[in-house]
Structures are given as C-alpha cells and as structure tokens.
Amino acid sequence: SNMGELCVRSVLVTGANRGIGLGLIQHLLGLPKPPQWVFATCRDPKGQRAQELQNLASKHRNLVIIPLEVANPASIKAAAAKVGEHLGGSGLNLLINNAGIVKITLLENETLEDMTETYTTNTVGPLLMGQAFLPLLKKAAQGSPGSGLSCSKAAIVNMSSSAGSIEDVFIWEFGQVVSYRCSKAALNMLTKCQSLAYKEHGVLCLALHPGWVQTDLGSSAGHT
C-alpha cells in the first residue's frame, strides 16, 4: 500500500532531526490517522540542530524524541528499552533506518577513518538497530492479523541510495564518495539478509531509494 494508506500504531525514525528524517516525521504526524506513537531519534535532541523536532514535539503529544547514536551499541540498547517502556505490551510496527553520513572526498583521499566511520553509521547501524528492535517488531507482527508481510504490520525500512548501485554509480562527477557508495551497497545486501532471516518472524524488510533530495546531506557533506 502507498504512504497515503499507511496505517501503523507505532513508528521509529532515526536521523529524524533534519532532511528526509524530519520530512518523514512531519508526514507521519500529518496523516489522517496518525500513529499513536511516533519515535524520533537523533544524536542530540536538546541541541540547536533538533530545534524543529522540539517544536513539533510541543504540538504533538504522540511524538517522542529519543537520543540515539546509531554507531553506539549501548545507545541503541538504551533507546530500544525506552521505546519498549512507552509501548507497554504492544510492539513496534515500523522501524525506519534513515540516519546516515556522507563525506565528500575523492578516492585518492579516502582514509581508513572515513571509510570505517561511514560504514559503521550507514551499514552497521541498521544491522544493530534491527537486532535490538527485533523483539518489539516480532511482538507487533504477532499482534497483527493475517499472514502476509506489510509495513502496517511489522517492517524494517532501510534508506538506501542509488549511489550504492554498482550498475548506475549515480552522479560520479558530483562526488566520488566511495565510502558512502560502499556503505550503501553493503546496506542493500544487509537488507536482503534481514529479509531472509526475519521473514519467519513476520517482519518485512526493504530498502528504499528516496531519489535525490535537496537536504543538507544531499546538497553538501551534511551529517543527518
């Protein structure tokens, strides 16, 4: 079903303080039947960069802001526990792994540090998020009627990018961004693995390419 028909009780979006993440939060809150719980995570909820999110939270009681560093396993575990508390006995319907970083650099300038940091955030992050939130996703799947897989039941959506396509190598001239491309190609494979492993639990896993969006990340080397 398309986004207009999306009917979920609970959704979590990482990297929610700006760009696509913030746009998703605004969209979800504006739905005719908005989710009962919208969990927005970002690294520094109290900081200047999360101001818009704070403003939204003051207007929408169903929006909960949670601090989360997707490259930090302890931070992920703490966030999963917090989300579980809010949900009580019910599960999480939709996990959107949107947080990502890109470092604009030429291949000759790629470093171990940049490669590792980008991969850790863009690929390992969604892996660890899937592991930590699986119990809540399973709970949502069990509490939902029907045997089919759907975003309204229980799902993991990984925000990928056509920059990760080996065939297209989208806008190479714009920026070689090799670490970013590698991390997104790996994320596509991770998504495939998650879909095979989590299917038996009733959890749908898919990768979305949002198109080139004019966000801080899309227009320059932004940290979302």
Automatic annotation (TrEMBL):
Domain of life (superkingdom): Eukaryota
Pfam families, sorted: adh_short
GO CC aspect terms: cytoplasm
Gene Ontology MF terms in the entry: oxidoreductase activity
InterPro entries: Fungal_SecMetab_SDRs, NAD(P)-bd_dom_sf, SDR_fam
Cited SUPFAM superfamilies: NAD(P)-binding Rossmann-fold domains (SSF51735)
Family of the protein in this entry: Belongs to the short-chain dehydrogenases/reductases (SDR) family.
Name assigned to this protein: C-factor
